[in-house]
## 1
Amino acid sequence: LPIPQFAIESQVKFHNLDPATSIIELNPRPNEYHLRTEDILAAIEKDGDEIALVLFSGIQYYTGQFFELEKIATAAHAKGCVVGYDLAHAVGNVPLKLHEWGVDFACWCTYKYLNSGPGGIGGAFVHEKHAGKDLTRFTGWWGTDPSTKFEMDNKFRPIPSAASFRVSNPSVLTTVALHGSLEPFRHATPPALRAKSLLLTAYLEKLLAPLSGFTILTPTDPAQRGAQLSLLFHGDGVMMKVFHSIAAQGIVCDERKPDVIRLAPAPLYNTFADVWRAVEALAAALK
């Protein structure tokens, strides 16, 4: 995904380093769609002594693969690396135990599974083991101790939490929108949502199985995926034809050119009837 790639490359350049020689990118093995955990751990073991930061997505946006984040964090810390995760497609979707796993930091958007709306406020996690440390950071008014910020002595006193990394005040409107979205999550509870999600996506997978004309890129192991199934369509132009056809029938999904449609039944509000309707529409579009 270009967005985090841009952020990473710009950080590397900010430190006067060359992205071509300072970033290690991993790819699946030939003719495979997913990164094997063993290959990720092998890369950390091989180059870990020279790696400052191991940065991974929680869920791979294109294939829907849910990485084994705890194993990656353990291996990276064993080599002295800092561990950070991009959880844009994971938060609100799969179980996350960042503190328990010892993850150093993570960040995410809230407009996907957390339903905050376009332009919604982002989120960040910083492990409490870093609280009180004199970490290099871009400091701002909203990261300093609120009890002393009006003393105007020009001394930054970091709040002993992730809040110390805030630079400016968050938008009230986007914060309230997120709060309104999180209330249903609190009442539904993450374990119950995950249990329903596993059933919804398994049902989607079962209904798709008899159909042809595409390959499901997402892992078949429920523990290695969230709500999403990514369908790789065969043949030039087929994907967009199918996408427009099912969209015309009220099925909201997502296309990634040239050939992939992502279907993600969200357990907070999608039903098994929604899944059945989506597959019926897709089957009709393929005829």
## 2
Amino acid sequence: MAACIRGVLVDLSGTIHIENSVIPRSIEALKKLRQTGLPLRFVTNTTKESKLSLLQRLTKIGFDIKADEIFSSLTAAVRLVRTRELRPLLLLQPDAKTDFAGISTDNPNAVVVGLAPDCFNYETLNKAFRLLLDGGQLIAIHKVQYYKRSDGLVLGPGPFVSALEYATDVQAEVVGKPQALFFKQVLTEIKCDPECAVMIGDDVRNDVEGAQAAGIKGILVKTGKYRHGDESKLSQPAFGVCQDFLEAVELIIKHTKVSKR
């Protein structure tokens, strides 16, 4: 059966690369995907480094990706902070903070949390705790529980955001995946309706479940943080469950060819 596919969203870490290593066949897969002519965006919750550093990393390991093709949860967080004119306490790594250049952090009235191993210590978390008790807003760039690093699975920022929520009774506002607004912003850029878009990722909750809740088709790849049986956690079956990014691209090509008949 033909499926309407007019736009593709692709996760980065765990789907096409892990840190400085390319996931096998991913460069070939991206070339094949570009040959379809479908609008494309790379959507990522990566918050440990700035968008520029991420792009440089991807280019260095062999990917042909343009800066305006990357839509990150950091981008969404910066937009939110600017719109509300917030002065954030940034629980971010130094490199990631560069994306917030020009935003005042004096006398903070909000806490923004991303993946920041250097900040997840008692002193810094207690500072955030006190700010929230004084009425500050809690903004989670995302709440990923864990992710895949070259040395194995490691904690994401989600557990630390949850700790602040528990301690302060303040509910975090999440801006990255799996939020529907995040996906909507990306689709607006490529002028694609949700029902005609597909999301490829290794995270069953934030990539696939999040996309499907927003009306987007989801393809789960068995790379990165994927664990056996993850697909069974979905509230509705994925559009596809594939071994890797290349297999996911081939599934898309198959359906686009059918729709053209």
